[in-house]
Amino acid sequence: MSDPAIDRGALLTEQPNPASAELDQLDTLALVELFCEEDRKPQQAVAAAAAQLAQAVDAISARLGQGGRLFYIGAGTSGRLGVLDAAECPPTFCSEPELVQGVLAGGAPALLRSSEGLEDLRGAGRADLLERGFSAADALVGIAAGGTTPYVLGALELAQELGALAIALACVPADQAPMPCEIDIRLLTGPELLTGSTRLKAGTATKMALNILSTGVMVRLGKVHGNRMVDVAVTNSKLEDRALRILRDLAGVERALGSRMLQEAGGSVKRALLMAQHDISATEAAARLRQAGGRLRQALHLRPSPPPGDPSRER
Questions:
Q1: Which of 192, 220, 248 is the last residue of a domain?
Q2: Picking from 47-61, 88-102, 113-127, 247-261, which range would have the lowest pLDDT averaged per residue?
Q3: Number of structural domains in the chain
Q4: Last residue of a domain, one of 188, 220, 252
Q5: Angle CA(225)–CA(230)–CA(234) in degrees, nearest 5?
Q6: Does 189 reside within a domain?
Q7: Nearest to 264 by CA among 275, 250, 256, 255
Q8: What is the pLDDT of residue 1?
Q9: Quick one: average pLDDT of 274-295?
Q10: Which of the residues 22, 37, 38, 88 is marked catalytic?
């Protein structure tokens, strides 16, 4: 049900866009060109929120570094974008599926069939998080383009009650729609070309922001070396080819040798790179990575372990 205290018609995302007042009268090329022009605004909106995004990356990384998890929660387009970003983390960064989770009002069926009425259930967001064991150790990004979604607000309230990290992400000014949070990210993309259709510019800006959050967090957690996905999960031929190119480019390993090293390393690009750079076994490479907390750059600079029986091992 609608909250009578909120004038949704006054929200920035609900305002009519003067540029598209005659949208149905435009010829097709003009319509496409108008969309292209308006779609510059999401990039500007994300850039304007850079400081808040950086704060969120650092705060989420700190939680995950201590064993916490990252949850995205939303309804409709906002929720689907969160699920998409979460689903892409394991194949990209070889992260555990539980590390980054997307929670969508209506669950999996709502990915394919709209169930927008569920967003009005303030208690449902709380219940869905608790069902997944959400706790004080975790971080939550509540995504609501208009900033008024009860499902998301209830979830953010729960996060604050538990002492979890609560981050709000919306496309309206904070004074139009306050959200309970520690970090408030506002992506002000302006009125949509199709009035109120936040799957357009607001959705584009949201996807960009989530790209930054998840990638930035994984960089901070040591899952990236330079700009290479060294924690990529080698699960198909495309990803195997990418892994072999990483070994070639970073360690000068030719394809045949790289394939053998990857097999010995159990598909781990990090272990194979250490093996190539320091001429060590997969077991030693794994030990160095554990000592470096999984961070390849630090592992590359660790001194080799003395052989068994060497007196220096006791020092």
A1: 220
A2: 113-127
A3: 2
A4: 220
A5: 170
A6: yes
A7: 275
A8: 39
A9: 93
A10: 88
- The one catalytic residue in 14, 38, 119, 157 is 119
Phi, psi angle pair for 246, to nearest 5° = -65, -45
Tell me which residue range forms the domain holding 55.
Answer: 9-220
**Residue 171: closest CA among 200, 202, 140:** 202
The answer to whether residue 38 is catalytic is: no
* Closest by Cα among 119, 193, 112 to 151: 119
Residue-level pLDDT at 118:
78
87 and 191 assigned to the same domain: yes
Q: How many CA atoms lie within 13 A of 75 on its CB side?
A: 25
Residue 60 has pLDDT above 80, yes or no: yes
- Which pLDDT does position 252 carry in this prediction? 94
Least confident of 1-15, 28-42, 201-215, 219-233: 1-15
What CA–CA distances, in Å, run from 228 to 216, 257, 270?
Answer: 13, 20, 11
183 pairs with which residues across the strands? Answer: 167
131 an active-site residue? no
Residue 39's Cβ-side half-sphere holds a number of Cα atoms within 13 Å equal to 12
What pLDDT was estimated at residue 120?
83
Neighbouring residues of 39: CB distance < 8 A, sequence distance ≥ 6: 201, 204
> How many whole angstroms separate alpha carbon 151 and alpha carbon 127?
10
Contact 49, 205 (CB under 8 A): no
Q: Which two tokens stand for residue 225?
A: 């070396």
Where are any strands of DSSP class E within the chain?
Answer: 70-74, 100-104, 139-143, 165-170, 183-186
209-215 average pLDDT score: 98
